[in-house]
Each structure stands twice: as structure tokens, then as C-alpha cells.
Amino acid sequence: MRGALGHDVARALRRSAEARGIAAAVSIVARREWASALFEGARFTIDVSADDAPLDDWLAALPECDLPLKGYFVAGAEVMEHCLPGRATVEILAVLEA
């Protein structure tokens, strides 16, 4: 089940980009288990690349994007690095639904 969540996160990001007309390549770089006093989930570091100019606009909107995940909700979506044109590293926090 652990690998399935990473696959679902990557698919949700690709679909979100596609909805804005961006053909993005998405690759999970790292997964770290995450927990608080009330919740548990996983934090994913993800490389995103695309040749399309709208990538910048999509990345700017990413924290507010709806990224549906079965059995989880996205508690955080953040652009960690965006130094090169067409490339970025994002972090997604997926939390298990109660």
C-alpha cells in the first residue's frame, strides 16, 4: 500500500497539470512518513518538469490546487525549488483521512 500512495500523488499532480494544458513529467524523489498527535501520513518530495510556459502559473497555484487522493487529503503542497526553467521540486503532505 505504501507504493500505491506515491503513485496516486504523482497521478494527481499530473492530472492537475494536464487540466491546465501542461504535459508534466512527475517523479517521486523521496517519501518520509509523517505523524502528529492526531494525524498520520507521508511527505513526498517530487521533481516536476515540463517544456510548457504555463508551468510557472501552475506552480504558483499549486498550494490551492485540488489534488484528490483516495483515503487521504493533501494537507500541504509547496514549491521547494524552482531555479531552472521548466523544472521544479515540490513537496506534498498527504494525510490519512479519519
Overall description:
The protein has helices at residues 2-19, 55-61, and strands spanning 25-35, 40-49, 72-81, 87-96. It is α+β, with helices and mostly antiparallel strands. The chain has a single domain, classed as 2-Layer Sandwich (STM4215-like), CATH 3.30.2000. Strands 1-2-4-3 form a four-stranded antiparallel beta sheet, covered by helices on one side. The model has no long low-confidence stretch (mean pLDDT 93).
Q: Any chance you could write out the topology, listing elements then pairs?
A:
Blueprint lengths: L1 H18 L5 E11 L4 E10 L5 H7 L10 E10 L5 E10 L2
Antiparallel strand pairs: 1-2, 2-4, 3-4
Question: What's the short story on this structure?
Answer:
The chain is of the alpha+beta class and 98 residues long.
Structure keywords:
alpha+beta; STM4215-like; 4-stranded antiparallel sheet; 4 strands; 26% helix
Spatial extent as radius of gyration: 13 Å
* CATH top level label: Alpha Beta
- Contiguous low-pLDDT stretches (5 residues minimum) are none
- The chain-level mean pLDDT equals 93
Number of E-type strands: 4
H-E order: HEEHEE
Task: Please report the number of helical segments.
Answer: 2
Principal-axis shape equals globular
Residues in helices, as a percent range: 25-40%
Measured by DSSP, the beta-strand proportion falls in 35-45%
Strand order, sheet with most strands = 1-2-4-3
Question: Could you give the distance between the termini?
Answer: 17 Å
Q: What is the domain tally?
A: 1
Query: How does CATH name the architecture?
Result: 2-Layer Sandwich
Biggest pleated-sheet summary: 4 strands, antiparallel
CATH topological fold name: STM4215-like
Structural class: alpha+beta
